[in-house]
From TrEMBL, chain A:
The lineage of its organism: Bacteria, Pseudomonadati, Pseudomonadota, Alphaproteobacteria, Rhodobacterales. Keywords: Plasmid. Residues 8-75, 103-168 form the DUF2249 domain. This is DUF2249 domain-containing protein. Coiled coil: none annotated. It comes from Gemmobacter fulvus. The keyword Coiled coil does not apply. Pfam families: DUF2249 (PF10006).
TrEMBL record, chain B:
It comes from Gemmobacter fulvus. The keyword Membrane applies. Keywords: Membrane, Plasmid, Transmembrane, Transmembrane helix. The keyword Transmembrane applies. The chain crosses the membrane at residues 45-67, 79-102, 114-135, 147-170, 190-211, 223-242, 248-266, 286-309, 315-345, 366-387, 393-412. Coiled coil: none annotated. This is Uncharacterized protein.
């Protein structure tokens, strides 16, 4: 089977502008088609990213080119795809996360209140702790914010379609 | 790009649309258009500043923002948003100026001829983004997604019929019977493109603001199938027109379908409204109900409009454009701009410092006053057209202009966070219309 062409993301212009490239990298990772790799070009070796991407089911291979630029290829690990029935962007392996230490019933709250409650609660969690939330709908604007802060999530609609179930695992830091 | 679901150029689309709205209102106030006076170049310029400049721009901008929400995936080809906006805006200005060629300004003829190319380019770029985002196996199952795609087909027909009329009016190529083409063009624009796109977006938007459960609905499938029949007939009629065959049957059938589609849509919205979990809907939803009432009224007027024509047709079209589509858009725009501004500024601060409620970004009373003024203008304009009263129509336009100015003022206040206390405002304010980006914080990624 032929592999799709890797998606290339050059973060050097973003860094040159003095901006933070993490969000762009997460957005690019979300936009990959199944099986597609992400080729990242950076002015330095982006070591902190390796762990984040490994948690999302990517193996990484890096090398420094002759011109000094670091080229990192993140390849999706076979078998690490998101569990069937989980929403696009969900972390793989959420089934093996520990039991939630906090449960939130956010049914009936108008947007963006559910997002406020979840982010406030996640900030209080220890790294690795899991939060469960029940919502009216898929919190589309929350996901990029969770990724930006280094947290992982997995979610889907309950079978009735009337509620959305969300697990969030706190990342290493959220200052 | 943080906030991958924020389309960066949405506010630029909205800003451009509002400028065209103010231009249309201002020119109408100066007497460029009035009852039974729509075939002059100046009158057509006003109509197209309103329809193409205001309503099409706002709908295209809204689609770019909401298509990712409809499909639950990031926007495809986001880099096309700015070129599309530039092309569509240039096309609108070209067309408005080009219509003045009909009033004897021969030097403007080249602009008239360029306009279809510029608008066509803008429409194509947006259609590419929307279709590339929506066309997946998973999302095509949703009736609202199919409805938006159907609206794009109507947009293509709208553009084609408009282009043929420009070629005819400018004496460039073929000669079409304008009396037959014009109703097709209007139906494709008002009933096909604008209303169907508004239907598709409103299902999701209403459910979101009313906290109504998302359910697979047979009614939506019925609306889609009936609308597909209508759009197919209109597009077929357009092709028949090119072969100089009769299209009267097509108009008759489509006008028969319109009350059915409207009734089905209003039933579906009633179902969403009744299943809401939110006890007290906010102003944007209450004023959307007024827009829905205007939709019903416009459909009722469309029937005598077809059989008798004249003032009835004028009133029906006016009520659909100004009452139904514009009231809905203006009511939702205030909420959407508040929400996007809040996400842009305050989402990164949640959990790190207190954040204000979204509702605090706008002045609900001022917004309600402006929307009441707009609705009064819509009713006054409709009555004035039925009575063929120029003075009444001028009064209506004055009300609409005041309402639009008030809403623009309120939208600027929202973007500038003017209603917040000084200590709640960030040091740097977001730009009025330039790209939506969030202040970035260093997280995880350091050398």
């Amino acid at each position: 089977m032929t592999q799709p062409t890797p998606l290339e993301l050059d973060v050097r212009p973003i860094i040159r502008r003095g901006e933070e490239p993490f969000g762009a990298i997460m957005a690019a990772a979300d936009a990959l088609t199944p099986g597609q790799a992400l080729r990242l070009l950076a002015p330095f070796r982006p070591a902190p990213l390796f762990n984040v991407m490994a948690n999302r089911g990517f193996a990484c291979r890096d090398r420094q080119r002759d011109d000094g630029v670091w080229e990192v290829v993140f390849t999706p690990t076979p078998g690490a795809e998101t569990e069937t029935g989980m929403a696009h962007g969900s972390a793989p392996g959420a089934a093996f996360w520990p039991d939630p230490v906090r449960e939130l019933d956010l049914i009936g709250l108008a947007p963006p209140e559910p997002m406020v409650r979840i982010l406030e609660e996640v900030t209080l969690l220890a790294p690795g702790d899991v939060l469960f939330a029940l919502l009216d709908r898929e919190p589309m604007f929350l996901f990029p914010e969770l990724a930006q802060r280094g947290h992982e999530w997995a979610g889907n609609f309950a079978r009735s379609g009337e509620a959305y179930r969300l697990l969030v695992r706190a990342g290493a830091q959220d200052d | 790009m943080p906030g991958k679901h924020l389309s960066r150029w949405t506010l630029a689309w909205f800003g451009s649309a509002l400028l065209f709205l103010l231009a249309a209102c201002g020119l109408a106030l100066l007497g460029a258009a009035g009852p039974q006076d729509w075939s002059r170049g100046a009158g057509l310029a006003v109509v197209h500043l309103f329809t193409l400049g205001w309503l099409c721009h706002v709908m295209l901008g809204a689609l770019i923002q909401f298509v990712p929400v409809l499909a639950a995936r990031p926007l495809a080809l986001p880099m096309l948003a700015l070129p599309a906006l530039i092309a569509a805006s240039a096309g609108t200005v070209d067309l408005a100026l080009g219509f003045l060629f009909l009033d004897g300004h021969d030097a403007l003829r080249p602009l008239f001829l360029i306009a279809p190319f510029a608008t066509g380019l803008g429409f194509t770029l947006v259609a590419l983004m929307v279709a590339a985002t929506l066309l997946t196996h998973a999302t095509l199952r949703l009736a609202e997604v199919r409805l938006v795609l159907l609206a794009l087909f109507a947009l293509a027909g709208l553009w084609l019929s408009g282009t043929l009329m420009v070629l005819t009016l400018s004496g460039t190529a073929m000669v079409l019977d304008l009396a037959v083409t014009r109703p097709l063009h209007i139906l494709l624009g008002v009933g096909g493109w604008l209303s169907l796109a508004a239907f598709g977006v409103s299902y999701k938007l209403f459910a979101m603001f009313l906290l109504a459960p998302e359910k697979i609905s047979r009614l939506r499938d019925a609306i889609f199938l009936t609308a597909m029949l209508g759009v197919t007939i209109l597009l077929t009629a357009l092709l028949l027109l090119l072969t100089e065959r009769s299209t009267a049957w097509a108009m008759g059938v489509t006008l028969g379908l319109i009350p059915v589609i409207a009734l089905l849509y209003l039933s579906e919205i009633t179902r969403i409204w009744q299943s809401r979990r939110r006890a007290a809907p906010e102003g944007n939803m209450l004023w959307s109900r007024v827009a829905l009432a205007f939709l019903g009224l416009a459909v009722l007027l469309a029937l005598p409009g077809w059989f008798i024509g004249g003032v009835w047709a004028e009133a029906a079209i006016f009520l659909a454009l100004v009452g139904w589509l514009s009231t809905l858009t203006l009511a939702q725009m205030v909420k959407i701009v508040s929400f996007l501004t809040w996400i842009q500024i305050f989402a990164p601060r949640i959990g790190r410092r207190p954040v204000p409620l979204v509702q605090k970004l706008s002045n609900a009373q001022a917004v309600a006053f402006c929307l009441a003024l707009w609705s009064a203008g819509a009713v006054t304009g409709c009555v004035a057209l039925l009575l063929a009263s120029s003075a009444g129509f001028r009064l209506a336009v004055a009300l609409l202009t005041l309402a639009a100015l008030g809403l623009v003022r309120e939208l600027i206040a929202i973007r500038h966070l003017s209603h917040l206390a000084a200590q709640e405002r960030p040091a740097t304010l977001p730009h009025l219309i330039l790209p939506l980006t969030q202040p970035l914080q260093p997280v995880e990624f350091r050398s």
